[in-house]
Amino acid sequence: MNTHSAAIADVPAPAAGSTIWQRCRRWALPLFGIAVLGLLLSRAHKIDWAGAWQALQRYSPLLLLAVLGLATASHALYGCFDLIGKRHLRHRLPYWRTWAIAVTSYAFNLNLGSLVGGIAMRARLYARAGLDDATVAQIVGLSLATNWLGYGLLAGGLFAAGAIVPPSQAHIGEGTLRLLGVAMILLALAYVAACALARGREWRFRGRRLQLPAARLAVVQLALSTTNWALMGAAMYLLLGQKVPYGTTLGVLLAASIVGVLTPIPAGLGVLEAVYLALLSGSVKQGALMGAVLAYRALYYLLPLAGGLALYLFLERYAANHSPQTPETPETPEAAEGVTPPLRAPVASA
User: Fold this and answer.
1) Distances (CA, A) of 317 to 91, 128, 308, 313
2) DSSP result, 293-335
3) Which residues of 64-215 form beta strands (DSSP E)?
């Protein structure tokens, strides 16, 4: 994104190594996505679709309502991620509007991909609200950091506790997985420690001055994110009829999520199903497993998309009727005196 010239210096040209990686990623990720889809399609005729339909029919309305409640709570909690950015940057956008933009973007992000929902839609809605590009970039960056720092803390805890037993074909020992878990936990804690020890310090990165959030905000980041992932795991745990331990269910969901991020397919179509079939087919009947995954997709992805669309239309109409005269800027003493304040942004990234 472009930023105001008063707040940034000239951006240096990308290094040759990063250019090579960008070219490789352009081809590697689509090929990986095609491979995952091909794997799913090759197994499609072996899937017990009749059993999946029967499993869907056996769900009680009360259970589906409980899962929908967990999904709604998760989406609402994700909206609070952007409120951390508001607290850190002190922009003047109201809390309710910041939250609504985050919830809308998350619903579209899940179904249409991060470039459309997580970035493009956020950028449009925040721009319509009057925030400048630099502030929007920092809000998005802090939200991404919140999501994946909590992911690392929760997944690391599961790995370190031995709650996830790697399959034999994974070629990774249980001891190695435990060490990986400890490293993930230490990384999350190091982030909090860095926020505590480096308070007030600034760094320069690509022409921008960066500042970590306060340690209390870092703790809030981890708490919100881990709770959000735990809610997602609880929803799938209920849909699986509590036949699989909660830790295992959550671990498989975390694995499916990271594979979905690496696969450039809208809504991760086929990825969630493929990962669950690969990791839980020996614990749950295939029909019941597919029924649970399809119900989860409907309740966590599709229904919230309808709500996100309604919120998006409301936000667009509100923006049209309340167009800001000038772009919003952070509320700081420097801004009040007419001095350009330093940009604040998280150094952690997704």
Assistant:
1) 21, 10, 14, 6
2) HHHHIIIIIIHHHHHHHHHHHHHHHHHHHS--SS-B----HHH
3) 203-205, 208-210
| pTM score over 0.90 | no
pLDDT band at 94 (very low <50, low <70, confident <90, very high): very high
Per-residue model confidence (pLDDT) at position 49: 63
User: Which amino acid would we find at residue 233?
Assistant: G
Tokens of 239: 């849909």
Nearest CA to 9 out of 211, 205, 200, 210 is that of 205
Cβ proximity of 206 and 3 under 8 Å: no
Cβ-contact 206, 11 below 8 angstroms: yes
CA-based end-to-end distance of the chain: 17
Would you say 77 and 224 are in contact if contact means Cβ atoms under 8 Å apart?
yes
Residue 78 pLDDT > 80, yes or no? Answer: yes
Sign, CA torsion 325/331/332/333: positive
Residue with tokens 């049209």: 320
Q: Which residues contact 52 (CB under 8 A, 6 or more apart)?
A: 286, 287, 288, 290, 291, 294
What is the distance between the alpha carbons of residues 229 and 154, in angstroms, rounded to a whole number? 8
The answer to whether 84 and 217 have CB atoms below 8 angstroms apart is: yes
Task: Return the residue matching tokens 């998006």.
Answer: 312
Q: Are 5 and 228 in contact (CB under 8 A)?
A: no
- The residue ranges of every structural domain in the chain are 47-336
pLDDT at 288 over 60: yes
Cα separation, 158 vs 42, whole angstroms = 32
- What are the tokens at 183? 């490293």
